[in-house]
Amino acid sequence: MLTGIHVLLTYKCTFECDHCFLHCGSHREGTFTLRKLRDLLDEVEKIPTVDTVYFEGGEPFLFYPILLEGLRWVRDAGWHAGTVTNGYWATSMEDAEQWLQPVAKIGIADFSVSDDQFHSTKDADSPGSIASGAALKMGLPCDRICIAAPTVAAPSDSAVEKGQPVTGGGVKFRGRAAEKLTSGLPVRPWQELTTCPYEKLADPERVHVDAYGNVHLCQGISIGNMWSTPLSKLLHDYQAEKHPVAGPLLQGGPAQLARQYGIGPAEGYVDECHLCYMLRKSLLPVFPQYLAPAQVYGM
Ligand code: SF4
After folding, report:
1. Is the pLDDT of residue 83 over 60?
2. For residue 201, how far is its CA from the centre of ligand 1 (angstroms)?
3. 196 CB under 6 A from ligand 1?
4. Nearest Cα residue to 97 out of 35, 44, 142, 155
5. In degrees to the nearest 10, what's the CA dihedral of 181, 186, 190, 194?
6. Hey, what domains does the chain have and what are their CATH numbers?
7. What pLDDT was estimated at residue 120?
8. Whose CA is nearest to atom 5 of ligand 1?
């Protein structure tokens, strides 16, 4: 049952992190206007199961007045509002509190801060640390997201039994991460990658939506375009088994996606998402409306 709408407020970001799912960066286009945001939330009103609208990106604080207005509308509609930031704006505790006062006044259900080595090496003095410190001081419900570079961990007993390497760090190998962070990691034969481990493709609990209108099941797998077909109708009509990408993934994971479209991956892959992303990238010219936007694939 769909309960969450995740608004990709912008693909612009102050960073170009190696682990970014979406190939975000300072040069990226695709930012919601107030008008588009209002049109989206009008549609969300028609989906009675939704209780949360979350603003992310890219870096949503780059479009601060639009973010604040969006958070206000979501709160006024009676949904839980949330947002995530890398805290680039937190240059001191006093300044961070100034930035966060309007957010605290709105009253949101979740405020998350990305604070790890991908974003800053200043540890306790990192912008993320200052932002989360200020948020906690002001009583905002704050989480820190800390992702480490992938490492090969000592295999657990059960992994040894299965002969599987174990890769740690919390990175999901999609988007830029699949291209930048997989080199040198242990791989598995593609035929073994027979499930989608992270997304409920048959009955999604959340979707991501972007300013181009794409409604993502997983980053870069679109159900359709909500500016052409209303979001409520797209979601109502969605049947995973008929979707040209989600269907095979549901049937037999990325390995089935490869078989169905006659793609013979030659090498092993770090995990399901790594294979899935690389296959999807090669299928871009075949399904441009379902594998969108192309910039999520680094185009
Ligand atoms: S296997 Fe594919 S669809 Fe599933 S979570 Fe990984 S990248 Fe997303």
Report:
1. yes
2. 9
3. yes
4. 142
5. -90
6. 1-147 (3.20.20.70)
7. 61
8. 198
Residue 216 has phi, psi (to 5 degrees) of: -90, 130
Strands (E), 75-120: 80-85, 110-114
| Both tokens assigned to 2 | 């769909």
Nearest Cα to 152, choosing from 140, 166, 133?
A: 166
Does ligand 1 have an atom closer than 6 angstroms to the CB of 273? Answer: yes
CA-nearest residue, atom 6 of ligand 1: 273
Positive or negative: CA dihedral 244, 246, 248, 249: positive
Q: For residue range 6-46, what is the model confidence (pLDDT) as tens digits?
A: 999 999 999 998 889 899 999 999 999 999 999 999 999 99
- What is the residue with the minimal CA distance to atom 4 of ligand 1? 196
Return the best residue to mutate from 201, 249, 251 for the ligand 1 pocket (most ligand atoms within 8 A of CB): 249
